[in-house]
Structures are given as C-alpha cells and as structure tokens.
Amino acid sequence: MLQRLRSSSSDPRIQRRPPQAHAILGWLPCISWSLLLCFLFWLPVAEAEEPGAVERGLQIALEAERRDEGFGDLTAHLEMVLQSKGGKESRRRIRLRTLEVPSDGDKTLLVFDEPKDVQGTALLTFSHIDGDDDQWLYLPALERVKRISSSNRSGPFMGSEFAYEDLSSQEVEEYTYRYLRDEELGDVATFVIERFPRDAKSGYTKQVVWIDQEAYRALKIDYYDRKETLLKTLEQSDFQQFLDRHWRPGRMRMVNHQNGKSTDLLWTDYAFKTGLEGSDFDRSSLARIK
Amino acid sequence: MTRRRGLARACAVGLIWAGVLAPGPVSALELSGFLALETRLFIEGEGDAGQATENLSLSFEPEIYHAWDDHRQSVQVTLFGRVDSSDSRRTHADVRELYWQYAASSWEVSVGWKKIFWGVTESVHIVDVINQTDFVEDPDAEEKLGQAMVQLSLVRPWGIWDFFVLPGFRRRTFAGPDGRIRTLPVVDPELTEFQSSKGEDHVDWAVRWSHSVGIFDFGLHHFNGTRRDPFLELTRNAEGDEVFKPIYGQVQQFGLDLQATTGPWLLKLEAVDVDGGREPYRRILSGFERTFFDLAGKGLDLGVLAEYSNDDRRARPNTVFLGTRLTFNDAQSTDLLAGAIVSQEQGAVWSIEGSRRLGDSWKLNLRARAFVDIPPESLISGFLNDDYVEIELVKFF
C-alpha cells in the first residue's frame, strides 16, 4: 500500500530525529501531549470529555509508522484495474521506485508502461515534510520535462478511484486522530481509529481506519467526502513481509460507493534495499528510465 | 543526403549495433510505436493555389529500445514516416532518434540522432533551438526532426550541465505547391542558401546549465551555429516563378528559461538574444498557467493560460496567447485545449485540440485551426483561407 509505503518513506519522525535522538524517545509522549493540547482548542472532534481517545489514536498511528521505519529504498510493479459501473475494465501498468531520504520527504519515480499511448511517461515526486511537494512530468513524445503543480490533492489519479492524496506521502502530522474502539474485522483483532486531514485541499472530512493489533497494518479505510458522507472504501489484503519487518499488501481495492466504480491496485516484484541513490531520481533520470 | 553524411550515418549505425551485440547480460528488446490515419478538411474549400479541399494522410512511428550492462548502456531508435495524399513534401521520412547512450551516476553521454527540448512555455518555444522543426507535420511547430549530436551531461549538486556538438544541419520542412497551410508563394528548398561557407556541414555547438532550486526551475544556454528558422526572401526561381528562398544565417544565441511553481500557479519566462544572420533580434515570452483542480469534486481540472510575446523585429508583432485546458481525468484521459494567439496588427490564430483514448490502445485526436484577419504583408498570409478540421485516429502498439 502506497499509504504505508509513503508514510514510512517520508517518515517525519525518523527524518526529523537525528540518530542520537533515539535516546530521547521518551520525550515523544510529552511532545504528543503538547500537540494534543493544541488540538483540544482546534478540533470539535477532540472534545474535552475524551482526551484519552485522541491520545490513543495518535499513539496507534505513531506505532504503525515506527514499525515501518528504515526501508531504505524499494522498487515494485503495479497494475491498476479500473472497473466502470457496468463492469468494463481498463488497465494501467506502472513501475515504481522510492528512496527514503533522511531529513526530508521521500523521492518517488513512477513510469507508465500502459496504456500504450502514455508509455514512457514518468512522474518524479520529491515530497517534503513542510510545504508543497516538487513534481516533474516527463513527456517522451516531446522529450520534455515539465515541472507541474503538486497542489492537486483530491483529484483522481489516472482516471482511477484513487485520489492523488490517497497515494501520496502520508505523514502522521498530516492528520489529527481519535481512537474509536477495538473490533473484530473478519477474525482479525483491530483498532478502529478516525483521522482528520489537516490540509484544507483534502477532498475528505474524515477517514476511519482499521489497523490490525498485531502488526499495525491498515486493513481497511472508509473515506468521507466534504459533505461527510461515505465516499469510498479501501481494502488491503495479500500482505507479505519483507526484510522481516516491512509489511506490504499485494492488493488494494478501492470501491467508490457513490459512483459505483472501483479500482484494484495489484502489487508485484517488491524489492527492498536495492541500492538506489539520489542520482536515480534527478531530472535527467526521467528521460532514461524507459 | 550527401554521400558523406550517408557514410557517417552508416558508421554510427554500425557502431551502435556493435555495442548492442557486445557480450554481456542483455535485457529484452522492446518494440513499440504507433500507426495513425489523419484527415484534414479545409472549411473554405480549395486553396488559393487550387489545392485540394480534403486531405488524407498515414503516418507510422516504430520505436525500439534496448538496454544492457545493468541499464548503463542503451540504444533508442525512433523512425518516422508519412504518406500524404496531396503534398509530396509532406510525404517524408525521418530518423527521429537513433542513439547510443552510456549513463553513469553523475554523467551521461549520447551519440547519434536525438531530440532535445528546452523551455517552459506553451504557445511558442523560443529557446528550444537544438532540433529543426518538422513544419509540414503541424503548423504548431511542435514536431521536430532528429538532430545528429554528441551530448555530454554532467549532473552536479548545483545543476545539470549539457554540452552539445551538433554536426549535420537539418533544413526546415515546408509544404510543397500542392500542400496547404503554406506560404504564398511557396518556399523553394532548391534555392536554400547558407551564410556559412560550410553550408549544412557547419558544426554547431551549444551548452546549457539547468537547475532546480525550491520553486524555481531554470536554464541558461548558449548556442553557436546555423539558425533553425530561415530568413525567407522573396525571389524568382529558374522558371521565373515567384518563390521564397530560405536563407540560414550564422548566429550566437543566448537564452534563459525560468519557471516558478507555486501552489496551482506556474509563472513562466523565456528570453533570447540572437545575434548575427539577417535579422538579429531579442525576444521575451512571459506568462502563467493557473489550474483549478478537481472542480466541484468531479475530478475535472480547468487550466487558464496566458502568454505575452515581445519581439523587437519590425515584421514580428507582439502577440498575446490566451488559452484554456480542460482535463477530465476520466478512464479515457479525455482532454481539451483551446486558445488563440492574437496580435494587434497581424490577426489571430485560433486553435482547439482534443483527445480521448478508445479502448486500451487507440486514441482519437481532433484539431481545428482558424486563421483570422491575417494581413497580406504577413508571412503567414497564405494560411488565411486554410482554416481546417483534423481528425486523427492512432493505433499504439
């Protein structure tokens, strides 16, 4: 899942915390509490009667992120299957490479193999902890590299049911949280938390996330639109563990309840710590990845 | 093509294939490309010189890419050919790309025929000087001919340095007597003249420094060699007919391209100083693109574009480009671009372009262009009665 993948890759905590800061890990709860105090004044959801729920929600998100730290770099192939309301399918095939960058957000390069008319098109993203991401689009027919605006958060990615924000860097700081309950999802024990995007450009008012209690993987997310009605549900399955640490889903299924369309993202050929470096993500690399 | 250049090309091809066939781990050969059928309907009937009202054209662009040596070495071949029902000069073929590349982590070198794009604007490209325009393809001048080169790129923390040696000048393609969207009278390539005594064998060179810092992306370049856009001189050919003679001058060009990307705004600037040749000039092109994303939560993006061009040549008016781009972000990637380039003295060119994918591997492109109030003294006065609608169906493989 890009979510976890990105969240770890742009990992605000590792990157903000220099190595020696591990020693002061104990301070984190204090920081969280002060953050929490801020939220109390800002968010109607963080009502005074349930500060415990807000704190617990944040702790679960932090733990999920902590468990995926340090993946270094990864490459993967993905296939996107778009289903229309009538069941008509169309496919996209994409290659992905991501580099974890200490002290800033991750770098990601996507190369499109299908549909054929966009073959060779590449999208390079430098995500940043603060401020807008930097994005460049490579158009092979013109041999043109174009810097593009990254402020499209809520729009669909390649005509799919995934919005750009569903697939982009998800840092803990981008949301505020509230723990709801423990729940059995199928036969898996999960925490159910709510999270509220802090970015005004987000297409959502809230997301409800089911996180399994053993490995802290997001198994299911409900997305609520700006009118606070249920818009989409994401289900992640076929998880595999890499390097004895990082869990990744083989399948992400997004169903849009309002338009009846759905998109499956199928992940294959995951490889971690492949030795990618910064030069594999510079502007000149866009033209030669093919 | 002269025999010498033919020989040089054969040698280059030989070298490249020698590299491909060298032992070592080899990745799969990838073949792709497209085949396109295009028809143009000219709304005002026959052309000023009696050219056909309808035109049919077939184009083919196969592409081979092959990488080996852990992707450090690669070969890219892109060929192009078109058969046109009315214009013998639009029936043409070209080697768009045919190069070998070695890419190390902080430098790369390419040898062969290649396409290079510089610039940030949408309406016209004034700094983009490496490749010659394949003008018979489309009057928007976006299609380029392959350019022979040796290119060295150095990737440094303070930007990318590109060095080019450019042998083998390519002449701009112009529509023939039976073609439309052409000058009146026609350009006669037989009469082509060069300022340099070496003619098209003059070896050009160029260097560009480009970098990205925060919200800014910019490039500075210097080009020394044969100018890509010829001066067109009214003259008579051997038969005594009035024609335009293309004269290619020798120039030194300095240029800048700059884009600031902030939120949904792209602010753009291109500037050139071209010295030498018949008509030295300075030109500045500046503008913006503002996109309204995900309108009403329907996934639709609306872009508004404006660009202003200031050219100090007397015959070239200052122009304003206003345009709008609609991107539907649907499964078929439907998009629409409409705009006009307008000047006070020399009329306007209106354009609408739309495209939509059909199934998985087909695409339908629609274009319509109208040339309005172009005065007789304009170089493009011959376009005035050539308003057209173009439908193109493309099969990708």
Describe it.
The complex is a heterodimer of chains A (290) and B (397). Chain A is α+β, with helices and mostly antiparallel strands and 290 residues long. Chain A has one domain (1-290): Lipoprotein localisation LolA/LolB/LppX (outer membrane lipoprotein receptor (LolB), chain A, Clam), CATH 2.50.20.10. Chain A has six helices and 15 strands. Chain A has helices at 2-9, 12-16, 28-42, 51-66, 164-167, 283-288; strands spanning 73-83, 89-99, 107-114, 122-126, 134-139, 144-148, 175-185, 188-197, 204-212, 218-225, 230-237, 240-242, 246-248, 251-256, 262-272. Chain A has a 13-stranded antiparallel β-sheet. A two-stranded antiparallel sheet of chain A has the order 12-13. In chain A, helix 3 packs across helix 4. Chain A starts with a helix and ends with a helix. The model of chain A is unreliable at 1-41 and 43-49 (pLDDT under 50). Chain B contains one helix and 21 strands. Chain B is mainly beta. Chain B is globular, with a radius of gyration of 22 Å. Chain B has a single domain (3-396), classed as Porin (Beta Barrel), CATH 2.40.160.10. Chain B starts with a helix and ends with a strand. In chain B, the strands form two sheets. Chain B has an 18-stranded antiparallel beta barrel. Chain B has a three-stranded mixed β-sheet with strand order 8-12-11, with no helix packed on it. In chain B, strand 4 and strand 5 form a beta hairpin.
